[in-house]
Amino acid sequence: MTSILEKIEAHLQTHRVAAWVGTFRDYLTLVLQQPSLAQRAHSRLYTMIKSAGVRVDEAGKEHYTFFERDLFDIDEPLAKVVEYFKAAALGSDVGRRILLLYGPPSSGKSQLVILLKRGLEEFSHTPEGAVYAIADCPQHEDPLNLIPHALRREFQEETGIHVEGELCPLCALMLREKCQGDIYKVPVRRIFFSEKERCGIGTFVPSDPKSQDIAELVGSIDLSTIGDYGSESDPRAYRFDGELNVSNRGLMEFIEMLKADERFLYVLLTLAQEKNIKTGRFPLIYADECVIAHTNETEFNEFLANKKSEALHDRMIMVRIPYNLKVSQEERIYEKLLRQTNLQGLHIAPHALRVAAIFAILSRLEEPKIAGLTLLKKLKLYDGEDVEGFRQKDIKLIQEHTEREGMDGISPRFIINRISSSLIKPDTHCINPIDILRAIKDGMDSQGQLKKADRERYSQLIAEARREYDEIARNDVQKAFFVSFEQEAATLVDNYMDNVEAYLDHNKLTDPITGEEVPPDERLMRSLEQKVQVPEHGKESFRNEIFRKVAMAHRRGEKFDYTTHEKLKEAIEKQLFEERRDTIKLTISARSPDPEQVRKLNDVVETLIAREGYCAECANELLKYVSSLLAREK
Ligand SMILES: Nc1ncnc2c1ncn2[C@@H]1O[C@H](COP(=O)(O)OP(=O)(O)OP(=O)(O)O)[C@@H](O)[C@H]1O
Ligand SMILES: [Mg+2]
Ligand SMILES: [Zn+2]
Ligand SMILES: [Zn+2]
User: pTM for the whole thing?
Assistant: First the structure.
């Protein structure tokens, strides 16, 4: 409890930055000490992202800590977005374009923009991200715009700072009338970006294209004050409160951009291209802000096909945001989204989210066109697991054979909605993987707009996810029948490795009991190897491979256990499970279990609860489910 209170206190401390107020003369001193204060919007965003941390992987790709807590596994699109900020920050023409994100529903487009917005708000509270503005400017404009044109070149030569902005009409008037042209006297203050307070961050949402007023973007004349000032073109009679005015120095999000009327798009283009807002009766007003728009793919394609909007096309940088394609990351998305709902008193059974994620990813993958590669193998490969015939290094080639992978399929939102809807059913305390698959299936059936072919494909994929679950379920139960599965597996691995070592070295082993020298136990080794279809002529290389793996782990100071080598793990599990198979089957399928069986079943339930995260309800469901699976086997 105290720790969170301390954190809140620390947060308040850093946010209670003394409001800085001064004159332009004072501000100039600050800028000369810290020239980064003069950076423009794109550059500030780029600095913000970078300052959170950048990790470069072995392939030389950059990963940004800034996004990592909320966006998983869409590193490539994120890198493109950052590339855009970087190029713009360096002053290239790219900064004069709008960033347009497009992709399937719930692929994280809004989330990306939210992160940038919240990030900017936070960043403006730090010394590095501090922002100052002319005190009374409704567009909180850059104080450096006060520097007269005649002096700008020299200013740049001396300070390295390029000033390109123009004073807004209101500030120009104030400078003339209140300060008698003395720029040094103009009041400046530190500002803090805040979407709520409409400072530096804005959002524009298109509504009915015919009736929506352009004032929402660029502000409007305040009719009630014209009388006071005598003229419509007096800047004091204008309200600079459009989203574009508000977002000056920061960021504006344009939601569903392509739904907006063309009038709005052209205003936006002028802004991006010329850095000007065309407002009412005034000359163009300078603005410096980053515009990020997003849209869905259908509208995006219509837009691209439309000759009339060609001028707009090359004024935009388009970044495709596809779905995540890794099961483990998809699980994290669900966990993240579920954390935002109230799950008190509800249990989500082990593997439930994983099974849902397997289905979701399957729905997003394109049918592989490479011999020997199945959809499921591809799914595992993408998630970092080597599979029969394919390794991590093959992913690149596999992806070259795809067209639009990640742009179709089931969204995380759909899965979460299905999970929620089964959680809120009366008398529900726990949902298991089968409940979730059923809920997904029901959801499919009630989705009217789904094409028949898709519906059928999805049904098959649900069945496929379920088969994956069958394996997992069986495994959990079988393991729980052992007092210590890990212990027994370790003993078996040790035994196997001793024999393999002796075999490879043409050595003998010492029998631990009799002390006799005995040849390696071929029967034991083959019994394990046959469990994973290692043929007689392949045993030599299999043994070599495992031996190398052990040596490698040893060299790296890592532990080698039965799970380190995928094939060996499978062999060990099969071996141990087979030995107990009949007991397990008899025990869990018994109609009227004897006292010994009852005791064992209780132990198994206890083990599932203590070791694997089950609750009593889902542990018992699991036993029932696996018993029905075993009953179907010969
Ligand atoms: N790759 C991802 N990593 C983490 N969270 C994700 C990812 N993709 C989607 N989400 C989560 O899914 C939810 C929906 O995403 P978001 O609202 O950003 O989608 P969107 O692309 O804006 O969709 P729409 O086109 O429907 O507006 C969000 O809570 C988001 O955090
Ligand atoms: Mg969205
Ligand atoms: Zn101004
Ligand atoms: Zn449970």
Answer: 0.88
